[in-house]
């Protein structure tokens, strides 16, 4: 069997099994903690503008969705932003983009320092996004699916006027089921292809990925967005995988039945979102390619970063208005 990129997250059958999210605290409107306090008995932190810092990487799709939701809801001033370098070595995510290599608010060089300040015994992989409490330097959460839903629901009092409802109550049952399918087969499915260490595990993930993309194409052929005529979190979650598809997943992760640009409905849909304020300007193809091709040395031992594909198509008319 081939060597695994993340051996602790690879099953005996060669399938990639993503580690659980270690920190699952929540910032909520109904926390019983006072301002400046820590989590209450239910691990709920108090809602306070300016207290928490979102740590993201421009290359990471999980972190990218948090960045997009934060912007769409107008929470930029309420939640500060720290950006790690796209190149991750054995020490993990580094604040190498900041002057002197330190996050100016948290005062740390690596996100792992915040993880260990929260759990000194933590030995798992350090992940983004992470919401960090600037008062204590502790990680509140790295539970990326719940984090963005909470931004829509728990942070509502701090939303900008006219902010979209990305998680409408009436649509939640359908949305939750759809997002679970997208996560399993697409968002995490590309990783299950790329990090598989057996042919059988890869084949299974590949078939599930493209079967789901075909089903989503059929769904989107008759409506502008996944849940109708308005953008929801489901669209955000699908977009952050699609925008990386041709640049990274098609080649690097062997998701090569079709390029995104060869799937007409999904390509037009992705361009529609890319050209929507809050989406395209947060995508960084240079960081995306340097991260995937430069850090997964079991998959790409040379570390060579491809020059393509041509990115100009993202701004061409999409015809879905």
UniProtKB/TrEMBL annotation:
Q: Where is this region: Disordered?
A: 24-44
Q: What residues make up the catalytic site?
A: 60 (nucleophile), 191 (proton donor/acceptor)
Q: Where do the GST C-terminal domain residues begin and end?
A: 168-295
Query: Pfam families from the entry?
Result: GST_C_2, GST_N_2
Coiled-coil spans are none
Is tRNA-binding there in the keyword field? no
In terms of CDD domains, this protein maps to: GST_C_Omega_like (cd03190)
Q: Where does glutathione bind?
A: 93, 125-128
EC numbers, comma separated:
2.5.1.18
InterPro entries given in the database record:
Glutathione-S-Trfase_C-like (IPR010987), Glutathione-S-Trfase_C_sf (IPR036282), Glutathione_S-Trfase (IPR040079), Glutathione_S-Trfase_N (IPR004045), GST_Omega-like_C (IPR047047), GST_Omega/GSH (IPR016639), Thioredoxin-like_sf (IPR036249)
Q: Where is this site: Lowers pKa of active site Cys?
A: 249, 292
| Recorded GO CC terms | cytoplasm
GO MF term set = glutathione transferase activity
Q: Which PROSITE patterns match?
A: GST_CTER (PS50405)
Q: Which UniProt keywords apply?
A: Transferase
Output this protein's name: Glutathione transferase
Q: Which organism is it from?
A: Micromonospora lupini str. Lupac 08
Q: Which gene encodes it?
A: GstD
């Amino acid at each position: 069997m081939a060597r695994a990129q993340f051996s602790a997250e690879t099953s005996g059958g060669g399938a990639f099994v993503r580690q659980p999210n270690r920190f699952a605290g929540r910032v909520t409107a109904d926390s019983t903690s006072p301002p400046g306090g820590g989590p209450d008995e239910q691990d709920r932190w108090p809602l306070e503008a300016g207290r928490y810092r979102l740590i993201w990487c421009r290359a990471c799709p999980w972190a990218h969705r948090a960045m997009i939701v934060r912007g769409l809801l107008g929470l930029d001033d309420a939640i500060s932003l720290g950006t790690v370098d796209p190149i991750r070595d054995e020490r993990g995510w580094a604040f190498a983009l900041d002057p002197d290599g330190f996050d100016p608010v948290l005062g740390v060089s690596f996100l792992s320092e915040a993880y260990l300040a929260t759990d000194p015994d933590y030995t798992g992989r350090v992940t983004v996004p992470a919401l960090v409490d600037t008062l204590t330097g502790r990680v509140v959460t790295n539970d990326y699916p719940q984090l963005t839903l909470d931004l829509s629901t728990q942070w509502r009092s701090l939303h900008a006027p006219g902010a979209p409802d990305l998680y409408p109550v009436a649509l939640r049952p359908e949305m939750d089921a759809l997002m679970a399918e997208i996560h399993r087969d697409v968002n995490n499915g590309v990783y299950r292809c790329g990090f598989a260490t057996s042919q059988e595990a890869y084949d299974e993930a590949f078939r599930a990925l493209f079967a789901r993309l075909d089903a989503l194409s059929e769904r989107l052929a008759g409506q502008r967005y996944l849940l109708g005529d308005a953008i929801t979190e489901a669209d955000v979650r699908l977009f952050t995988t699609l925008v990386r598809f041709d640049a990274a997943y098609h080649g690097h992760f062997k998701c090569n039945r079709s390029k995104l640009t060869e799937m007409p409905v999904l390509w037009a849909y992705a361009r529609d979102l890319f050209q929507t304020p809050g989406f395209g300007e947060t995508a960084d193809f240079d960081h995306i390619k340097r991260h995937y091709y430069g850090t997964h040395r079991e998959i790409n031992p040379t570390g060579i970063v491809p020059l393509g594909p041509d990115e100009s198509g993202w701004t061409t008319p999409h015809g879905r208005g």
